[in-house]
Amino acid sequence: MAVNYIPETLEEALLLRKAEGAVPLAGGTDIMVQHRRAQGIAPDPGFPVMVISGLKELKGIRKLEDGSVEIMALTTAAEIAASDIVPWHVRKAASGMGAIALRNVATIGGNIGNASPKGDLPQPLILLDAEVVLVSFDGERRMLLDEFILGSKKTAIADDEIIKSVIIPPHDFTYSYYRKIGMRRANAISKLSLSAACIVKDGIISDFRAASGAAGPKVIRSREAESMIVRRPVEELPEIVPDFLTAWDHAISPHAMPMYRRHTTSRMLTYFLEAIVNGTEPGIIE
Ligand SMILES: Cc1cc2nc3c(=O)[nH]c(=O)nc-3n(C[C@H](O)[C@H](O)[C@H](O)COP(=O)(O)OP(=O)(O)OC[C@H]3O[C@@H](n4cnc5c(N)ncnc54)[C@H](O)[C@@H]3O)c2cc1C
Asked: Which of 225, 233, 184 is closest to 206 using CA atoms?
């Protein structure tokens, strides 16, 4: 791919974005594939490209004062998977992205920027109410990732903005669940995925949430379905579950293999909910 620019600082990158409309290339694992041409010919996207992989300002993972975790945009899937401060759902998803070679270059900023409903990281991040931080010459703005991703391959990024980081608020879940269903264990784009989490205190479910990946144009969380479970006693779950599953089924809209995706989503949610009802030891439900 003809690379037009290689900025050395974030400031330079923001200038190139504003003045030249240069599009960021981080790991390049999506952008290079999307604009590929015949074998032996370099990809040509038809717009100016800037390689941002050298920008130190966009690297690293850190814990913030309020206990949130900030993952900078150029952090790779391998770095996320290896971090002990990143919440479990996100580490788990990162460790199952593609094969090792891919995980070493694919970035969180690229996974979000690409906004594929099959992308692995938006799903647990949306479960955890993560926010994306966007930066431009005018300053920074923060918004829920769920609102930033508008649909398949569509985001709310402005022409002069760059994704700076993702901030995940702290959580202390009683039960956590994550499952990605792909063709193979490695190097397979997700066919379907689900993460779920809940907090149980004194027999009451004080927080319940789930997120479906590859089951619609973007990651789906149904607050309506979730609210059917929140603040209810665990012992009432068996009678709530059928209506909850129906509500979740209405919320998802898989376009390919819909029966398979609907049935499997329902099976995964049932599996998680049954573990809670059965009083399984708190922790990760596998
Ligand atoms: C063989 C193969 C296997 C794959 N397997 C998986 C998989 O299992 N799971 C999965 O989720 N994905 C998978 N992918 C897709 C891809 O690797 C991921 O989406 C990856 O996270 C993209 O990151 P990147 O840094 O390579 O993005 P790039 O290709 O560099 O960029 C992707 C998009 O994001 C934009 N962008 C990147 N960084 C920023 C930024 N900081 N600010 C604003 N915009 C930005 C770019 O302009 C571009 O539009 C696979 C791809 C390949 C080729």
From this structure: 233
